[in-house]
Amino acid sequence: MIDDIVVKIPATSANMGPGFDSLGIALDIWNEVRISKGTFSIKVSGKGENELPTDADNLVYKSFCQVFEKIGEPIPEVAFECVNQIPLTRGMGSSSAALLGGLMSGNALAGFPLSIPEILNIGAKIENHPDNVAPALLGGVQIGIYDQDELITASVTFPEDLKVVLYVPNQIMPTDQARNILGPKVARKEAVYNIGRAALLVQSLISGDLHNLKYATQDMLHQPQRQRQFFPMKNIIRAAMEAGALGAFLSGAGSSILAFTKDREYTIGYEMADAAMKSGLDGDIIFTCPTSKGAYLEN
Ligand code: HSE
């Protein structure tokens, strides 16, 4: 290995309201994974510093190893440096970013034996659902569905001036816990509610006509159940909508709430934080925008 390998991976917001396990959007907030020649070590700075494992249990490292296991080569010894901007366990795709950082740096070091679709498949298998991995790798808004074992993705265009406000609570929401509270069955009425809205969401984004986005970001399949564990959610979403958001929803499995806007981001952020505070919740506001760029290697 001659030079350092640097991978940048964006944050993502999965579900986007009605698109449970099927829709996700990449956000302009980035983690960096750098590998360089040297004794094995993992240094984490930014989000997760002093919190994430820095041994063989680290997700970046475990995914890096998967590349070499797949191609049947010994795992090279390298030093990892992770500079993280994506908050952990807040529904912003930190684990997808970590595993793609490992897969893409390993793939580059090995001379690119894996194609992008192969990386996508391995990543989505590790996560069990494609709605974070697909936008993190491919950028923009992605639809991801499985046909048997085959993962099919499609890009959805969106207006260039779309902005995002995130309320990121101090309260964490581990995805496995947030999934365990979902029942195994859904009623036909709820399925119909979400099918129409997911279709409307895609149409709204592609056409740029966002006046239906307030309906198109509603959900019956996971948010009502998660609301029972995360009581302030409803009030924060309502506050965002009343402040003029075009649409608002629980980001991934939570605990962050995402609002779309074109021009009212400061009012929306203030009102979301105020509603959270009134529910006894503390947190941060992040102003960002969607990115059509997915994970990439920096030269
Ligand atoms: N679709 C997943 C869920 C997202 O809602 O559980 C998790 O990142």
Task: Please give a structural write-up.
The protein is 36% helix and 26% strand. It is an alpha+beta fold. It folds into 2 domains: 5-156 and 291-298, Ribosomal Protein S5, domain 2, CATH 3.30.230; 163-288, Alpha-Beta Plaits, CATH 3.30.70. It has helices at residues 59-71, 94-109, 116-127, 133-138, 175-180, 188-207, 213-216, 223-229, 233-242, 265-278, and strands spanning 5-14, 23-37, 41-46, 78-84, 141-147, 150-156, 163-169, 247-250, 257-261, 283-288, 296-298. The longest helix has 20 residues, at 188-207. The model has no long low-confidence stretch (mean pLDDT 96). α1 packs across α2, α2 (94-109) packs antiparallel against α3 and α9 (233-242) packs antiparallel against α10 (265-278). The two termini are 14 Å apart. L-homoserine (HSE) is lined by residues 14-15, 20-21, 129, 131-132, 175, 178-179, 222, 252-253. L-homoserine binds next to α5.
What is the helix fraction of residues, given as a range?
Answer: 25-40%
Largest beta-sheet characterization: 7 strands, mixed
Poorly predicted segments: none
Radius of gyration: 19 Å
Supply the CATH class of the largest domain. Alpha Beta
What is the number of strand segments? 11
Q: What's this model, at a glance?
A:
The protein has 299 residues and is an alpha+beta fold. It is 36% helix and 26% strand.
Task: Describe the secondary structure blueprint for this structure.
Blueprint: E1 5-14, E2 23-37, E3 41-46, H1 59-71, E4 78-84, H2 94-109, H3 116-127, H4 133-138, E5 141-147, E6 150-156, E7 163-169, H5 175-180, H6 188-207, H7 213-216, H8 223-229, H9 233-242, E8 247-250, E9 257-261, H10 265-278, E10 283-288, E11 296-298
Parallel strand pairs: 3-4
Antiparallel strand pairs: 1-2, 1-11, 2-4, 2-5, 5-6, 7-9, 7-10, 8-9
The structure holds L-homoserine (HSE).
